[in-house]
């Protein structure tokens, strides 16, 4: 039975409070796992060999929702909030279990601008080392971590799912480029985790690293990692972040203050929907209207958690 594989490494953490919240008000992991039998995302249409299935071709659903958990695509502000929670719980869990991880791709670009996730981007990317992914696969696959924070007062379960194809280092398996996922079991939103592996046969010689998605870089562009803050939490970024970003997105992505239906407001250091009509479709209500809490709850976790 599938549920037996659930290693319920249950963790109660209260972000922003000085004491972790312990309680028995939590439901068992199985009640959140596979909460529905019908996959609403269209995942069923994917090739059977693909471990993390995509969704977009088979339904109107956004591909950045895990079809096992997603029921609806969230509105603009709800999604933004859910992604923030996703990132915060991810960063604090990985810090807790001692797995080094750093921001990459569009997520790193979001950091560059204002240390937040880009509001139009639900494709969240982080990387780990090869020993890191092996450790996760060995000890934490399918672990469920439960969090209770000022913003998630009802509590929420996040699951770490490691692709069994992680052990294949080669770029031959185009269906399994993503090595693991950190999944919000309520919304289905997730973070893609890829391992950066030393490439021993790279024509450019020693120190080259490759990911299964084809990205490659020199190790000195990544290490030593730099300490920073992202979404209010301690996080790490590659040492040569500007070079990496310029190479991936061109320098204009680092300076253009209008992008994807959004404008960057220097005064508030925020990407906001472009006020010109129809630039972006906004659904839901801004956080400030919906809830009273704000960024000052995003204090770093207490020591020793
Ligand atoms: C993680 O667990 C799932 C569910 O049991 C399994 O299908 C998958 O192969 C596991 N991944 C690894 C890396 O063992
Ligand atoms: C190493 O790099 C080469 C050249 O980019 C690539 O073809 C090969 O797939 C890489 N190997 C691994 C294990 O990633």
Automatic annotation (TrEMBL):
Bias kind Basic and acidic residues: ranges: 289-305
InterPro entries listed in its UniProt record: FKTN/MNN4/W02B3.4-1, LicD/FKTN/FKRP_NTP_transf
Entry's Gene Ontology cellular component terms: membrane
Major location category of this protein: membrane
Lipid bilayer topology: Single-pass membrane protein
Keyword Transmembrane: yes
GO process annotations (BP): glycoprotein metabolic process
Keywords assigned: Membrane, Signal, Transmembrane, Transmembrane helix
Domain LicD/FKTN/FKRP nucleotidyltransferase positions: 98-197, 210-249
Ranges annotated as spanning the membrane: none
Keyword Membrane carried by entry: yes
Superkingdom of origin organism: Eukaryota
Pfam families given in the database record: LicD (PF04991)
Signal sequence region: 1-18
Location relative to the cell: Membrane
Segments for region (Disordered): 285-305
Stated name of the protein: LicD family-domain-containing protein
Lineage of source species: Eukaryota, Fungi, Dikarya, Ascomycota, Pezizomycotina
């Amino acid at each position: 039975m599938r549920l037996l594989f659930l290693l319920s490494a249950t963790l109660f953490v209260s972000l922003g409070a000085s004491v972790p919240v312990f309680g028995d008000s939590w439901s068992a992991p199985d009640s959140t796992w596979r909460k529905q039998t019908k996959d609403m995302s269209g995942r069923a249409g994917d090739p059977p060999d693909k471990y993390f299935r995509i969704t977009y071709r088979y339904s109107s659903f956004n591909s950045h929702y895990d079809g096992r958990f997603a029921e609806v695509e969230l509105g603009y502000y709800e999604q933004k909030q859910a992604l923030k929670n996703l990132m915060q719980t991810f960063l604090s869990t990985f810090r807790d279990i001692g797995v080094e991880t750093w921001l990459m791709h569009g997520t790193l670009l979001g950091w560059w601008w204002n240390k937040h996730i880009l509001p139009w981007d639900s494709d969240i990317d982080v990387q780990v080392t090869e020993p890191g992914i092996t450790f996760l696969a060995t000890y934490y696959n399918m672990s469920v971590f439960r969090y209770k924070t000022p913003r998630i007062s009802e509590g929420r379960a996040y699951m770490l799912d490691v692709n069994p194809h992680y052990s294949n280092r080669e770029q031959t398996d185009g269906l399994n480029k993503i090595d693991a996922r950190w999944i919000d079991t309520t919304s289905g939103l997730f973070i893609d985790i890829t391992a950066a592996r030393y490439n021993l046969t790279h024509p450019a010689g020693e120190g080259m690293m490759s990911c299964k998605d084809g990205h490659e870089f020199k190790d000195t562009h990544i290490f030593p990692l730099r300490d920073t803050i992202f979404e209010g939490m301690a996080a790490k970024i590659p040492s040569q972040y500007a070079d990496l970003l310029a190479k991936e997105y061109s320098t204009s992505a680092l300076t253009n203050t209008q992008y994807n239906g959004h404008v960057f407001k220097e005064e508030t250091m925020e990407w906001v929907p472009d006020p010109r009509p129809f630039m972006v479709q906004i659904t839901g209500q801004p956080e400030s209207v919906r809830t009273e809490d704000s960024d000052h709850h995003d204090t770093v976790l207490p020591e020793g958690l």
